[in-house]
Amino acid sequence: MHATVFVNGRISDAASAAIPVFDHGFLYGEGVYETLRTYGREPFLFTEHMERLRRSAGLIALDVPFTDADLRAHVAATMAAHGGTGEAYIRILLTRGVGDLTYDPAACPTPSLVIIVKPFPAPPARDFADGVGVALVDIRRNHPQALNPRIKSNNLLNNALAMQAALRKGASEALMLNQDGQLSECSQANFFLVLDGELVTPPLDAGLLPGITRAFVLALAADAGVRAREAACTVADLDRATEAFLTGTTREITPVVTVDGRPIGTGRPGPITQKLLEEFRARVRVLTA
Ligand code: PMP
């Protein structure tokens, strides 16, 4: 794995990058993170990602002792050390830091900052052309009053277990229900349906991560003349839907053509999905020009 890693100011290759085992990020999964990618070697929607990082940190009472400019400079330095000319995958992690074995945050005065840069692994073109299959899994999305999905935390067992279930079913993503049996989101992506010609995605209070791409796509839809709304969705809506797609930083707008092997609509990427993907690509093309 060719990756370059920043750990608290020290930049090295992946093999030499280390975090102490007493870091509460390792011990308790106490930390928050963001995954970004570049277009034209520039981190896409950097400000939005930093806003979400700060919101996530706030929800676990973790200070972010860095300005956006500091973080941007650290990312730039890590990218420069990494070299290359292609697009980059960037993961920024902020953990509680090193401290004794207690949940008391006072034990950890200094958070740890890690930035991972590696070549961006572009999804296969066929995912966009032909769509992907998802599996409806038994694992429910975390109850917001137990571990709020709005917190993009390093504590990812809920997501990992859902994805394991999907992989066992031969699907490329897991679609999770919330505690009330409504659709919430995927293990690493938000979920959209087309119902009666209208774009519909579960609302934030269904218990899901406020995806940066989700918000970008909702704004894009308004500009592209596609009616869109946030509304609670049920499993029955999967049978009524004429199209579906998932959104995420690394997967843009990926058509979903089957759920548990059952086709959505015609079982092919639909016109609204294709229109939004084209519009999305047109916007990022401006950035790479
Ligand atoms: N939901 C979850 C659980 C995720 O991990 C991700 C990926 N960060 C997303 C949704 C998509 O969010 P974004 O568009 O900000 O990448």
SSE layout:
Blueprint: E1 4-7, E2 10-13, H1 24-28, E3 31-39, E4 42-43, H2 46-59, H3 68-82, E5 88-95, E6 112-119, H4 125-130, E7 132-136, H5 157-168, E8 173-177, E9 183-186, E10 190-195, E11 198-201, H6 212-223, E12 228-230, H7 235-240, E13 243-248, E14 252-259, E15 262-263, H8 271-288
Parallel strand pairs: 7-8, 7-14, 11-12
Antiparallel strand pairs: 1-2, 1-6, 3-4, 3-5, 5-6, 8-9, 10-11, 10-13, 13-14, 14-15
The structure holds 4'-deoxy-4'-aminopyridoxal-5'-phosphate (PMP).
**CATH third-tier fold name of the largest domain:** D-amino Acid Aminotransferase, Chain A, domain 2
Count of strand segments:
15
CATH superfamily of the largest domain: D-amino Acid Aminotransferase, subunit A, domain 2
- The parts where pLDDT drops under 50 for at least 5 residues are none
Q: N-to-C SSE series?
A: EEHEEHHEEHEHEEEEHEHEEEH
| Cα-to-Cα separation, first versus last residue | 29 Å
Structural class: alpha+beta
Radius of gyration: 19 Å
Helix content: 25-40%
How many distinct helices? 8
Question: What small molecules are bound in this structure?
Answer: 4'-deoxy-4'-aminopyridoxal-5'-phosphate
Mean pLDDT, all residues: 97
Strand content: 25-35%
CATH architecture of the largest domain: Alpha-Beta Barrel
Largest sheet: 9 strands, mixed
The 3D shape can be described as: globular
User: What's the CATH class of the largest domain, please?
Assistant: Alpha Beta
Query: Please, how many domains?
Result: 2
